[in-house]
Design brief:
This protein is mainly alpha-helical. The chain has 2 domains: 3-227, no CATH class; 230-372. 83% of the residues lie in helices and 1% in strands. Strands 1-2 form a two-stranded antiparallel sheet. Helix 2 runs parallel beside helix 9 (153-177). It is globular. It starts with a helix and ends with a helix.
Length: 373
């Protein structure tokens, strides 16, 4: 779940309280289905309290640190093990992808697959860096964030980014210095890829069984929540705000170039047509380049190598096309909804945008005042 999106559904002290809890959870590396449920339940409680005029203190209490410890007290050994298994799953996916790249980059992919070796030092180094970062944030930063009276979420976020960058630079320097001494980590390519694929398969099957047993479906909690119209509307509202902000900048630029409000509205309405045209061009271009690359490999390699390459590149490009089409579709839907709302309220598009942006700006200023208290 995008907790930042849920924050947009709250205002004032309720938003700040939720933000502090979500920041603490992120620093402690709390994740998984149980955390998704807890954070959503907290959002619902705070939202109900805000609507009923119930103060945040009646929910959180005077001691925020005690509330945080109590709220996450059920996050025990089982949840931690599942979290680590999930991290290993993601690591296995990365290892398998990079191994596949090594195979296809070789002069003879078949020879590389059957008799070659893989040196996963960089991935292991990245894993150790991530592990050190997790330990540091959960044992040093999170307790201090919990004790802080003010909600300095942005400050803690910036600090963690800086620390992660320092650790990443240290990892690169160490790997460069000890690269030759880590040669013993090389393993045979085929067993390496089989082990990664086996773990990924077992993990996905076990996770599906667990979710079905616990929730009655193999879908994760996030997707189930986003199927709810209320939670989906929060994300839609944020996208609308970003779109209207972009349009406001576009109009200001057009105004400086001597354009009128009618020109702006015409440009906005043409945006949907341009998005559809862009979708077609993107799909045709991507498919054409994919086919060309497959044909090129077929002319230079054996049939097994060509088939393997075609399967992998098709999957990768298919996922890429799906991602971009969903993004374009979401943008098109947002544009249509804004235009429809303008027409239903009987105001010009610029007036509608100004009213919405002013309302959001006032809400953000109120939130900032609460955060400073």
């Amino acid at each position: 779940m995008n907790f930042h999106s849920l924050e947009k559904g709250l205002t004032g002290e309720y938003k700040e309280a939720y933000k502090k809890v979500s920041t603490y959870a992120a620093m402690k590396n709390y994740s998984g289905d149980s955390i998704e449920e807890q954070m959503t339940e907290l959002y619902d409680i705070l939202l109900t309290a805000e609507k009923n005029g119930k103060p945040v203190q009646s929910i959180i209490g005077k001691d925020t640190e005690s509330f945080l410890h109590s709220f996450f007290s059920e996050y025990g050994a089982k949840e931690r093990v599942m979290n680590y298994l999930t991290i290993l799953y993601r690591l296995a996916v990365l290892m398998l992808i990079f191994a596949a790249f090594d195979v296809f980059a070789a002069d003879s992919p078949k020879e590389m697959l059957l008799h070659g070796s893989i040196a996963p030092q960089n991935i292991i180094g990245g894993f150790l860096t991530g592990f050190a970062f997790t330990i540091l944030t959960s044992t040093v930063f999170a307790p201090r964030a919990a004790k802080s009276r003010k909600n300095d979420s942005n400050m803690w976020l910036g600090l963690t980014v800086v620390v992660f960058g320092v650790l990443l630079v240290a990892e690169v320097l160490l790997m460069k210095h000890y690269k030759d001494k880590l040669g013993f980590l090389s393993v045979s390519c085929l067993p390496y890829m089989i082990c990664c694929a086996a773990y990924i398969t077992v993990f996905l099957v076990c996770r599906a069984v667990y979710r079905y047993w616990t929730y009655g479906t193999v879908r994760n909690v996030t997707k189930q929540l986003y199927s709810d119209a209320h939670y989906k509307s929060i994300d839609d509202a944020e996208l609308k705000y970003m779109t209207m902000k972009r349009w406001q900048k576009t109009f200001d630029k057009m105004l400086r170039n001597g354009k009128t409000e009618e020109d702006f509205e015409k440009a906005v309405r043409n945006e949907i047509k341009n998005q559809k045209t862009g979708n077609v061009i993107f799909v045709v271009t991507t498919v054409s380049l994919t086919l060309i690359s497959i044909i090129k490999v077929a002319m230079e390699s054996a049939m097994p190598d060509t088939i393997l390459y075609a399967v992998i590149i098709t999957v990768i490009e298919g996922l890429l096309i799906r991602f971009f089409l969903r993004t374009f579709k979401s943008g098109e839907k947002t544009t249509r909804e804004i235009i429809d709302e303008c027409e239903s309220e009987g105001v010009s598009m610029l007036q509608f945008i100004k009213n919405k942006l002013d309302t959001t700006r006032e809400s953000e200023e109120t939130d900032a005042e609460h955060a400073a208290i």
